[in-house]
Structure formats: C-alpha cells, structure tokens
Amino acid sequence: MRLSPLFLNPLLFAANIFSAEPNRIDKPEHFQTLVNPKCSYCNVEQGRRADELRDDDRALAWIRGKHDGGAVPFRFFLVPYRVISDSYGVWVYDADAGFVRGFEPSYDFTFHGWRNGVMTIKHKDGTLFSALSGVAFDGPRKGTSLKFLPTIQTDWGYWRKAYPRTVAYEMLDKFRPINLPSEKTSESFATRLPPDERLIPDEPVIGLALGNLAKAYSISVLSNKKIIHDKVGDQEIVVLWYAPTKTAAIYSPRMETNKIPEQLSLQANDQISTAPFADRETYSHWTIEGRAVEGPLAGNALAWLPAVQCKWFAWAAEYPQTEIYSTNSKSAVIAATPMIAKLIDGERLDWEKMEKTEATIVKINSETISVIADSDKKEHSASFMPQTEFYFHGAWGSAKTFGAKQRVYIIARTSAKKEWNTVHALADEISMEAMSMPWILKRNDAAKNTFVFGDKKGRKPERELSRDENTHLRFSSKANAPMVGQPYFYNTRSEGKRNVAMEIFDAASFENERAKLQKQNRDSAAQNGLVATVVETDVATHRISLLIRRADSLFARILKKNDKVRLAGKFLGDAENHFEVVDVRPDYSRTRLRLEIPLASFENFHTGETIRVFAPLPENLSIDTPPDLGRFTARLERIDYFMSTIYCPCGMLGTSCAGHWNTLAACKLHGCGMPNLMTREIGEWIDAGKSDEEILATLIQRNGKIILAQHQQW
C-alpha cells in the first residue's frame, strides 16, 4: 500500500480523518454516563443476580491490571450507559458500530453523540474524541490520542468461570437488564459515510492501527483460520480467534515482561478447550486473553496490541486507507497444523520424509543394508544407527537376525533428493503380521510343496509360498502339519519369481517364540546395559539427558527418581560410576532419562555419543501395563504421558499412519484429528477425577489392547 506524505505522520493522519466537514450529530442527553460505580467480584455478583445473569451475556473484559482485570456485562451496564468513567478505566460501547473500548482511567468523560457513524465522547475540558480511534477531533486537545487499555469482547459465563475473582460492578437493583439493541440508532445511521465497498458495511472485522498504518481482518476469514500470523509495518502480530465466545484479539508474539523466548510461534491447539493456543518453543498453553495457563511459561502474558472488534463501516470511516488482510497475501496463516499435548524434548521424526516400503534384502551386515524396494523396484542402500529399530519374530532383534533374499518391511530416512541414507526401522514379515493379523491357510498342495495363504478380511490377494528343504515348520500340534482355515505367521525369501517359505509358525508356537525372545532381550539388557544416546549436556545444572533406544525403553521406564545407574561408554573407561536419576519419562516412542552428573565427570559426555546404562531389572516384566503408570500428577504431564505411551486406535489402513507405529505423539507432525480427540478425552477424564489406571482401563475396554502396542490395520 503506497501512502501519501500526509499519511506518514500519525498526528497529521488523525487530523486528516476529520479535515472535511464531518457527518456529525451531537446529542449528549441521549445516554446518561455512569461514573465510578461500586466495585465487587465476578463470583460475588454472579450469586447476587444468578437468576438474571446469563452465561451468554456479552461482556467487555479488561484483561490486564489489578485483580487480573474484570468484566462488565452489556445488558446491565453498557446498553443503558454507553460510557462508564471509572478508576479502572473509561469503558465505551457503540452498539451500532459493534465495538467496545477501554481508555485510561478518568471520571471526566461523558457520552456526546456520533460522527461518521461512530460514537463520540467528551472530556470535561471540552475536547471531543472518537470512541473507536481515541483521537481528539475537536476542542483544546485536538489531534491528541487517548491511551488504550487491553480489552476484548467475551461472554460473562466464560469469564466468571475462568476469572471468578476479577473485578465486577455491584449489581444493585437499579441496574436492570436491557436487551442489546436490535435496530440501528437513527442518529448514528444518519452520520455514516458512503460505504467502502471493499467489504459489506456491517461485516464484523478486527482492526489494528499502529502509527500511520492500519489493517483489518474479516472475522469470517479469521474464524476459519483460528490464528493468523502477520505483520503491520515492522510489527510482528498474531491474530487469535476463540469460537466459544466469538472473541478476536491481536498480540505481539512475545511476552510482556520476560524476554526468553524472545519470540513465540503460536499455533492452534485445542487440547485445553479454554486455552486453545500453544507455542512451539515451550508448548505452553495460551488463552484468548493472551495468558499462559499451563506449561513452562504459565503466569506470563503476551504483549497486547490495541485491536478492536467492530463493523467494517466504522473501521473504514476512522481509517479510510486501511489495508485488508487477504488469504492471497504473503501473510503467514498457521491453522492447518493443529498441535497436541506438549511433548518432552527429544528425537522427532518427520514421517512424511521417510520411505516406507516392503523390500527384498540384497546384502546386509552390522552397519549397512541394501534392498530392492517394492515402491520403485530400485536398489537402495542405507546405514544403521544405534537407534535403528529391528523387529524379529514379533520382538526386538538385531541386524544379524536378517539375511540376504529375505522379504522385509523397511522405513528409511531420505534426503531432500529422496535418496536413502539411514534406517529408522527394519521388520521381518512375521513381526508385521503380528502387528496386523496372521494369514489364514487356504490350501495345502503337498504334491507341489506349496501353501496358499489368504487375508481373512479379503483385503489382500492370496499368496502362494513354495516349500523346500530349508523351510522350518514350527507347529504345536502333534501332527506337525498345517491345517486349512487356521492362522499362521511366516517369513519368506525371494528366489526369482518365487516366494519361498523360510519358516512358518502356528499361533501357539509363535507366542512361545515371542515370549522366549522377550526373555532373551531382558537378559541381554541386564547384562549388556540399555543402549542410549546423549542428547543434552547442561553444565549449569550438572545434568545430562539420555534418549534410550526403543528396544530398551520399557526397561528404562522401571527406573524412578533418585535411583542409581551405572554408565559405560567410549570416554568413561572401565571405572565404576553411579549416577542419580533426576527424571525419567516416555518421550515420543522412546524414554528420556535425565541424570545428575558431578562437574568433574562432564568431560566424559558428548552429545550424540552412544553409551550403555546398567540398572537392576526384574526377572519378569508385563508388557500389558506400563511400569510407570500413575507416576505423574500434573494434568499436562499426564496427558503427555498417555500421548507418548498409547498408539492410535483409528481405522486407517496400511502402514502410513505414524500413530500406529510410533505412538500418538507422532501424529503431532501431520495434522491428524485423532491426537486432538484423544487429548481432549483424556483431559476430560482427568478433570472428572479419573486415575491413570482408570483411564487406561477405559481405553482398553473401548479400543482393545492394540493401544499399548504397535499395530497395523488391514
């Protein structure tokens, strides 16, 4: 927008608004001004007028200052008295232009009339001000501006529940409820300017004027976006919408007082219904009033900007050169990526940047693998990492449990050019079948040494497997022969165009095999330690953070605060050492362990280093119930715990769902609705007083035990 030289000076700009002969009607007797009413508290006045105050009563709320602000119900105060001059502020209500405003405290303002369709107020010194812009257009202080106070439009019910101890005015008998006007005030309508046809005259907007710049945001656009990130001049702003109270507000994306974080990246997040915004820096949760109510920044407030909800004709009259926000502009709109609960710091996966495919192994060793991918029929190579997940026979395995020509499922990290680089996970067919469902034997042709298996739901084509002298049949029946109609688990290898069965388990044999491997994994973890990566070292607090690999995460969750563990690593040598556990919790699909480290030992720890953690482990550990269930007490921590513990129960087919593979926390990256649904439900159960044990039992009863283990829907 190109501005005239006159427009570049704020005071000249204000004067220019009123330079022409205005459409103005002075009628100070039309409304009596209320001066310095007696004060009380919202919860007190709700009790006094419980039969008359409604939850949906519109209210002006001031959102900063003593007692955390206050609220003025329209029907009792602002409809009969369009101006309230008080020690808390000067509150104005223009029913025709659809706005409320707050100015610095004074007993000296009264209602005066209308100008260009906008209400005017008068100071006792004779100066006339616009009630919308706060700019003086006549009188001894012409060209000056009043100081705005942070205000919003809201609902009385929402406000008094969220802020019961904030200020209210005493609901004396003389304050009788008067419904909001349904007809236009003739004097106001008579002074309107010709319409600015960029928008419909009565269309609701929220406008912001900073210096010599002004911008309007249509509420119809904002209500669809929920949050808009934009700039007015050099000022970064965030425009918020709260649907339950039809409230819009604009803030600078920084805190009023604290300087760290210097800037916040706010996004929509309805995990907490009354605080539906969260910042990516700390995942603190913010209300429409710009207050952080949960998370590391709780108690802080965003820097309010003097925005106002009003009708378009009024905003255009005050700021004729205003810009209008457009979804086609370069402004950054952040709404389509809903966030879930605050996730503990740690490794994150961008599921969309990974290749997920069935494949045939060409060659494999302890460091690398080459496969022919089914996705593109090409050969790809990738490296293994300490955190690479190996799934074998439905349990945890290692690279050595796989061989050339074997059919596998692989998840590989890729570069920007889609080139494979590292392996996130490698699973044999039996493990994938255990995550979804076994195959059903349809036919057994002994003469041809072939088996034909089918999907019991009929979603996949039948598969014919050859059998040779190397095929291992593992059956629990004495007949040691497969039975048509029964479920089986198998691994295969590719021999040209044939799929040859490497091994076939019946259901009972498979469960015995998996139990045996789980016991072996436990014994290995006890003897060789839990494999972990150093992800953070903090000399100031004498602490380090370790991310335990997924295969050992369940064992790590047995640990508790103040437990002692021994570490072994490249720089630690063979010396005995015991370090105290400060914190342990699920992180994404793994476990984060925070340890207290003496300052003298810090030089032995390096970010990215792989180390081993030795801790006492129980002989038997049930995988049906998380060992740390009920450990956390704070509401948000409990939600985080479940989101990093349970898997998505949705009906999405195939292997593309991150929440089926990596717990619901993984869906944070993908805009899926299920994390929001689950966090909302879990939050409601917590608010209703349910324990974590009761919440888990409810989830299992409703969704089955699949929520506690990786699974694939077919």
Keywords:
714 residues, alpha+beta, six-stranded mixed beta sheet, 46 strands
Structural summary, described in words:
- With 714 residues, this protein is an alpha+beta fold.
- It has a seven-stranded mixed β-sheet with strand order 30-29-28-33-34-31-32. A six-stranded mixed β-sheet has the order 37-36-35-39-40-38. Strands 41-42-45-44-43-46 form a six-stranded antiparallel beta barrel.
- A hairpin with a 4-residue loop joins strand 7 and strand 8 (99-103).
- Helix 11 (635-643) packs across helix 13.
- The two termini are 55 Å apart.
- Residues 1-21 and 331-346 have low confidence and may be disordered.
Tell me the layout of helices and strands:
Blueprint: H1 10-17, E1 24-26, E2 34-35, E3 39-41, H2 42-48, E4 58-62, E5 70-73, H3 74-78, E6 83-85, E7 90-94, E8 99-103, E9 109-115, E10 118-123, E11 128-130, E12 136-138, E13 151-155, H4 156-162, E14 167-169, H5 186-190, E15 204-210, E16 213-218, H6 219-225, E17 227-232, E18 235-242, E19 247-255, E20 266-268, E21 277-279, E22 285-286, E23 292-294, E24 302-304, E25 307-311, H7 312-318, E26 323-324, E27 332-333, E28 354-364, E29 368-373, E30 379-383, E31 389-392, E32 395-396, E33 407-414, E34 420-428, H8 429-435, E35 439-445, E36 450-454, E37 463-466, E38 472-474, E39 487-495, E40 498-506, H9 507-528, E41 530-538, E42 543-548, H10 550-556, E43 564-569, E44 579-587, E45 590-596, E46 610-614, H11 635-643, H12 658-661, H13 673-687, H14 692-703
Parallel strand pairs: 2-6, 16-26, 31-34, 38-40
Antiparallel strand pairs: 1-9, 3-14, 4-5, 4-13, 6-7, 7-8, 9-10, 10-11, 11-12, 15-16, 15-25, 17-18, 17-27, 18-19, 19-24, 20-21, 21-22, 22-23, 28-29, 28-33, 29-30, 31-32, 33-34, 35-36, 35-39, 36-37, 39-40, 41-42, 41-46, 42-45, 43-44, 43-46, 44-45
Helix pairs in contact: 11-13
